[in-house]
Amino acid sequence: MLKEFRDFIMTGNVVDLAVAVILAGAVGLVVTGFTNDMIMPIVGHFTGGIDFADMKYVLDPAVIGPDGAVANPENAIMYGKWINALINLIIVGFVLFMIVKAYGKVRKKKEAAPAPDPGPSEVDLLKEIRDELRKK
């Protein structure tokens, strides 16, 4: 059973999938960094300095105790982080679209070669035999 599992893990498809998952995680980190550090400051500049990551709807405000410490933290819907995640999704989708499009151009489908001439049909061969027999 252990040998079967080892054989399964060592097949090309599983190894390729593992590489793809690790690479996808790395690409996700790069895209998140690109979005947060490059795109969102530009968007914030054109929207009057708004940082989407800080946008939230407070359901319950934080309760501060008499000693100045937070007795009960605020409860808020952080929709700004969700907007950042949507922008990440759009960027990743666009990048994947461009990769697939480029891959399609590089790997053009081979046009089907014309089928070889099948030669005479059975009916044609039988007619030839008949004609030869009539000549005799």
Q: Per DSSP, what share of the residues sits in E-state strands of 2 or more residues?
A: 5-15%
Order of strands across the biggest sheet? 1-4
Shape: elongated
Under CATH at level 1, the class stands as Mainly Alpha
**Low confidence ranges:** none
- Going by CATH, the architecture would be Orthogonal Bundle
Number of helices: 4
- State the total count of DSSP E strands: 4
* Mean of residue pLDDT values: 81
Radius of gyration equals 33 Å
**Helix-strand string:** HHEEEEHH
CATH topology: Non-ribosomal Peptide Synthetase Peptidyl Carrier Protein, Chain A
What's the domain count?
1
Termini, distance in Å? 74 Å
Strand count, sense and barrel status of the largest sheet are: 2 strands, antiparallel
Q: In which range does the helix fraction lie?
A: 55-70%
CATH superfamily: Large-conductance mechanosensitive channel, MscL, domain 1
Task: Assign the structural class, choosing from mainly alpha, mainly beta, alpha/beta, alpha+beta, or little secondary structure.
Answer: mainly alpha
